[in-house]
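Morning F.,

Quick status update on the modeling queue. The single chain you submitted on Monday has been processed. Sequence for confirmation:
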Amino acid sequence: MKVVLAYSGGLDTSIIIKWLKENYNARVIAMAADVGQEEELEGLEEKAISTGAEKIYIEDLKEEFVRDFIFPTLKAGALYEGKYLLGTAIARPVIAKRMVEIAEREGAQAIAHGCTGKGNDQVRFELTAKALNPELKVIAPWREWNITSREEAIDYAEKHNIPIPVTKEKPYSMDRNLWHISYEGGILEDTYREPDEDMFLLTNSPGSAPDEPLYLEIYFEKGIPLNINGKEYPPVELLRKLNKLAGLHGVGRADLVENRLVGMKSRGIYETPGGTVLFTAHRELESITLDRDTMHFKEVISPRYAQLVYYGQWFTTLRRALDSFIETIQERVTGTVRVKLFKGSCTVVGRKSENTLYREDLATFEKGELYDQKDAGGFINCFGLPLMVQGLLERKSKGDK
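Structure tokens below.
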């Protein structure tokens, strides 16, 4: 059997190559996706081959990741349970999509992943495979082998002389890409414990951030961020630039206990500096370019969109249908938002657009030409008619008693 393994070089996937060869007599083709892990990809090819992989693909998916997955999620305003900007969740479909493509190219019969049976990622990988090529077998070692903990996985690695990037003394897991870094497990499973400051890689502590605020102007065209302070950047470089600037000022940390798809609660610590700035600015630009009913309806579908991403349902008809709605309303979302970064906060201090629906001559408390305040009385009488009838009925009922 030929198997394409989603490979990161971390603890789980490092030992899975050996396990697949022992238990499936498999020819293993590793696939590492470059979605912005930076230094984590160094030495990956040598490590995969030395631990038993027949071949390794290191696929640069950064541009596709930002353009086709991050930006649609940004435009949708997707935020899971009010805090999570979906950095890990949105990376899985782009990785799994390329795995399926490589499996078809190599004539593989199966794909494999290192996701545990308790997590969300197993669902995200496998639903993508089912959608794109349901004939592929999926092998999930954590649901099959006798290893029951990270400590036992470390023991397995040491027994087989497999180098790993974690120790029993520091066993929390980390996932990094262009959009964020997530931390979970180990010491973080105590929901009352504050994370150690030296854990964070993308953001300064707000307390040690610069004492002077940084102002940025972010320009969007049809919901897509194109430049910072008047300078245009390609999508990947724009996000890297914002990560650096926002991270310097301590912006983008989140600590939440979330509801996993499989039913349990888990604690995650997230750093999403550039994403936090973009999400905040984009939402504010919509406040002046979208009409009331459209904005309110988007507020209904945004959590549902986030749920689809979190649940691994990217390749569904519903997600594509929601994208059609979102693309339509983003036609007007062009303009500039000015934000202030200071000591961990990202505050919007200005917004402007040629498509703005905000009219100073309507909003002003001074005399205006477009709005006759006398009209409000008739409107309130009509709008409040059901309440008036209800009130009359209740007063009559009380009088009868």
